[in-house]
Hints:
The protein has 106 residues and is α+β, with helices and mostly antiparallel strands. The protein contains 4 helices and 4 strands, in the order E-E-H-H-H-E-H-E. Strands 3-1-2-4 form a 4-stranded mixed beta sheet. The longest helix is centred in the middle third of the chain and has 16 residues, at 36-51. The chain is globular. It starts with a strand and ends in a 6-residue tail after the last strand.
Amino acid sequence: MLRLSMRDGEDFEGETPLDLVRAMKGASMFSDVKDVLHYIAVVEERLDRVEHIKLALTGDKLDDRCESFILELDRLGLAKLEHWKTRRRRGLPKPKGVREATDGKG
């Protein structure tokens, strides 16, 4: 299980990076976003325009693009990616209030 903690305090979890991005899309304020790839493009454009942060995204396939997106957010300090095994090794409990991907749609 993966956990992504955003700098605004919101947390997401899922089995895969795609699950994390689906959960983020579901919680986003961008109501006109059509699918996961569109969501990533909107976030990428907004980060560039508003915060002058450029994401170095790779991957043409959906799973690869989601993994690249999540890793970039973590690398740039926009979010913190953590695997549940790491939390368990540290003796930390699963946090409450974590959003999960539930709809299975992109």
